[in-house]
Amino acid sequence: VINLEGNAGMVTGFNTAVKMTKAPYIVRMDHDIEFIMPWKDKLLSWFGKDKSIGMAGPRVIIPDGRIYSALFSFHFRYFKAVKINKILKIPRSFRRFFYWGENHLAKDDDMKYGVAGFVPHITGTFEVIKREAFEKVGLFDESYPEKNGVYEDLDYTLRMTKMGYNVLYDGLVKIVHYCSRPVLPAAREKNSGKLNRKHLRKKWGL
Hints:
Elements: H1 10-18, E1 25-29, E2 33-35, H2 40-49, E3 53-61, E4 67-69, E5 73-76, E6 79-84, E7 98-101, H3 110-113, E8 116-119, E9 126-130, H4 131-137, H5 152-162, E10 166-177, H6 186-191, H7 194-204
Parallel strand pairs: 3-10
Antiparallel strand pairs: 1-9, 2-10, 3-4, 3-9, 5-6, 5-7, 8-10
């Protein structure tokens, strides 16, 4: 058990804990998830099959059965049919014309989302990271001004792919995310995530 003097935030808490571990795989997860099927053997098996994989994650749904995050992709802002996995190959000045989607709140569909393959990002709600890759990529970025874990997970997968690792989505593994968090004052709730979004754009041009 690690006791910090104050509420340092999700990212600092994770970094503090992971520094004390030595296991070959690191699992980052939110506090409000539920496992509804076995996951460990399935997700860990991918790392043995392909050495290029740096991290892997499942299909994430919310309690009513809709998608929280699955099959993340970058797409051209004005024509969503144009998708690209390697967003960092796009010159920085043109990245602002691309946006992303993760099928949030779409109806769950095993035929559509129950697949596995490389994606540009998996949600930090639950992800398995290979220790070797983690040590090369480094800790999660604590310079994001809001400490509640918004956009810093996308920052991390961008850094992972920049280092040459692949990010794997396995939709045959499914977990539930309850999306529970403390109630914020109305002004903070309205602006939640905006500072981190601005920081992400400044850093990556997205």
